[in-house]
Write a structure and sequence with these properties.
single chain, about 400 residues, mainly beta, 16-stranded antiparallel β-sheet, two-stranded antiparallel ribbon, 2 helices
Length: about 400
């Protein structure tokens, strides 16, 4: 066999580029610094309320480019008396359990000053800080969470108690002032499932338990201990779509000296303004003893069992063109509440029962803000029970 000889190789490659060492310095990497991108990302001015009445507050927050750090701050000015409230927090997220540092200052009126046997209002100043962490362990279809925190609060009077004492009257009972420290820990578990078109969680269970302690051993002038626990269970109706039977039980127990022991209260929903809820984002939860006055039962322990049957009524999924309003769904709920708050030995004799129904409407305003309008009627069946009609923005448990 014969082969044709190859033609001589001719290279047409360009000459290699030349990089000056001085110009290459701009390509060198440096250690990451979050300060370059940690500035404020947003500001907001809110017309809201504080402990004394109407108030203005300024909020801002920020985070760095890679998400290691996040912070938020708020400064509030009361329009009734010119009081200043402030709070700030910073979270370091690079650890497996993010750590949060927070600080605050607040004024509020209190009624636990007694002069001549009558309650007298005084102004409490509280300021302090907290360090806390939370470790989450997500699994395939469930999740655990552990939390730990230590808080320090200084409690003082913002102005003199004032008043004139009569030696013929009983001595005044002064509120306790000083340093309050609190150590808390908690655990929670959940495998609750809620799909996109469910009216509420439709399957699964959740548990939580937490404890909180104040004691001179951890630097506190006060002494108390509290334990809280609860569980929630959801069962989907196997025959009717979007019908759910839900249960929730929660309780708590507190102990300590009379002047510092924790107290718990159960009762119906408080009166709220729908407009304030839409403007300020004030949304109630679903934990209540409906059919009774708010906080009508008070004690060092409480137990509350709630049962609800929830069902879809209508899913319009409609909005008026491009207007910032969208109607998602209407659904209903029939409920039975059974609970009590009391001090002393456990007994069922003081437990109260409330029954009723609710109509709930899920809607969206401003294209992104979702709310649930709750219209309900409740009847208390035991002593202290009333017929309640309530309208608020709230989410069920």
């Amino acid at each position: 066999a014969t082969f044709r000889a190859a033609e001589p190789y001719e290279s047409n490659r360009p000459a290699p580029s030349y990089v000056d060492d001085a110009e290459g310095e701009a390509l060198q990497s440096d250690a990451y610094s979050p300060l370059d991108t940690l500035g404020p990302r947003n500001y907001s001015l809110d017309y809201t309320t504080d402990a004394f009445g109407n108030a203005l507050s300024i909020r801002t927050s920020g985070f760095d480019a890679v998400g290691y750090h996040a912070w938020a701050a708020r400064l509030g000015v009361g329009l009734e008396r010119g009081n200043i409230d402030a709070e700030a927090s910073w979270t370091y997220r690079r650890l497996p359990a993010p750590v949060t540092f927070a600080a605050f200052h607040a004024l509020a009126p209190r009624q636990d000053l007694y002069v001549e046997g009558h309650s007298r209002e005084w102004i409490r100043r509280a300021y302090g800080g907290e360090i806390s962490t939370r470790y989450s362990l997500p699994l395939a279809f469930e999740a655990h969470s552990l939390s730990l925190g230590y808080a320090l609060t200084a409690v003082d009077k913002a102005e003199p108690f004032g008043g004139i004492l009569d030696p013929n009257d009983p001595g005044p009972v002064l509120p306790r002032l000083g340093l309050l420290t609190r150590l808390r820990a908690g655990w929670s578990y959940s495998n609750v499932v809620q799909t996109r078109y469910d009216v509420s969680p439709s399957w699964g269970r959740a548990f939580f338990v937490s404890t909180s302690m104040s004691h001179p051993y951890i630097g506190s002038d006060f002494e108390s201990l509290s334990l809280q626990w609860g569980t929630t269970q959801f069962f989907e109706n196997p025959w009717i779509e979007h019908h759910v039977l839900s249960f929730r039980y929660a309780g708590a127990y507190g102990t300590g000296p009379r002047t510092s022991r924790p107290y718990f209260a159960v009762g119906g929903f408080p009166d709220t303004s729908i407009l304030d809820g839409l403007v300020d984002g004030i949304v109630l939860g679903g934990v209540a003893l409906r059919g009774y006055a708010p906080s009508s039962r008070v004690g060092t322990q409480y137990h509350l069992l709630q049962t609800e049957y929830r069902f879809l009524l209508w899913r319009p999924q409609w909005g008026p063109g491009l207007a910032p309003f969208f109607l998602n769904r209407l659904w209903g709920s029939a409920f039975v509440d059974y609970g009590n708050a009391f001090s002393g030995d456990f007994t069922l004799s003081g437990f109260r029962t409330g029954v009723g129904g609710e109509l709930l409407t899920d809607f969206t305003i401003g294209y992104t803000q979702t709310f649930t309008l709750r219209i309900g009627v409740a009847q208390g069946l035991d002593e202290g029970g009333v017929t309640q009609v309530y309208v608020n923005l709230g989410n069920p448990f």
